[in-house]
Amino acid sequence: MAATALSVAALAALWGTWTARRARALVAEARAAERAHDDLQGRIAELDEDRRLLRSVFAGMREGLLVVDPDRRIRLVNDAFRQIFGLPFDPIGRLLAEVIRDPTVASDLDAALLEGKEIRESVVRAVDSGRSFELHVTPLHPGALVLLFEVSRLEALERVRREFVANVSHELRTPLTSIKAFVETLLEGGLEDREHARRFLSIVRRHADRMNELIDDLTDLSLIETGSIALDLQEMDAGEVARDVVAQLALRAGEVEVRCTVESPFPLQADRRRLEQILVNLVDNAIKFNRPGGRVVVSGTMEDRHPVLAVEDTGVGIPADSLEKVFHRFYRVDKARSREAGGTGLGLAIVKHLMRLHGGAVRLRSELGRGSRFELEFPPPSGSNGRGRPAS
Ligand code: ADP
Q: Candidates 1.10.10.10, 3.40.640.10, 1.10.287.130, 3.30.1240.10; correct CATH number of 154-225?
């Protein structure tokens, strides 16, 4: 009996120990599960945060972004991409070929998916807007990433550069061809005829001068445009400068009367040499594009504390659709007349940029057959309590 009672007691003790151990193990397991749950919650929150961040990065990108799976189904697309291809619907899950018909995108994607190749520098054009994009396709294993970088602005700059080089070559080739022709004539016996030889040589000199002028203007314009010249701004009497320019050009104005009505002192802040250059360009044009018996007047007025110098002529005038273009490099309204009159086609571009450098602007009004008026508006001189833009 005693043995049985002992074994029952022992069993009870054993049972107690076992349940206590089991209970402790269960508590430990429960705590571990709780920690794992907290960790998981934390990871899910982190992943949510990462996903939100990625979404806002994709949404904020100006570049178009698209991800496809190996079956060419769209997995991810950002707003820029949808806008470039004008996709009004959500294309997620659809086959790329159903959504975008551009053959370059399809073939570059094939190369990335099938051959694992990274493709760069194919150019695609958005049909509606005409904007151009450089296409980059990168294999992702699995799938592929398509990125579109806009190059429209670069293309436009490249076009301007090509046009500029073509214009300069043309402008230089014209006098050079003449020089070559006259020199060859002289070498082939023209030298014997002294009278002709002198005439030919003076033509050669005129064309060489023209090339020189062109190179001077080109150098000047490029320095002005890139801001590589520093203006020597001084308070000055523009009346005196205008009268000097008029006196100098009136001598070769032929049948055109040139007058200056700017009263002294007409104070403004400018670089004296550059102001002279601006006025010479405008008055010279006003004489060149005038008619016999015509008139050129340089005047000065104040407009809301801004000094304004005007060069007005009674010449051929400028058609309305050329009023802005005459300030472009090498633009000429009547090419034949302008070449005949001499000039590089850069004068007004130089005037425009020099006025900008002064913190001012040039304005133009013109009526075909009646004449033109160029107005140079300067910032208020520093002595006046003007509110205008500062001279830079
Ligand atoms: P350039 O006089 O050497 O041809 P500019 O840049 O000075 O070059 O002028 C550009 C063009 O603007 C001229 O070729 C001419 O067609 C037009 N233009 C400029 N000034 C006048 C003016 N006062 N009257 C009529 N046309 C003008």
A: 1.10.287.130
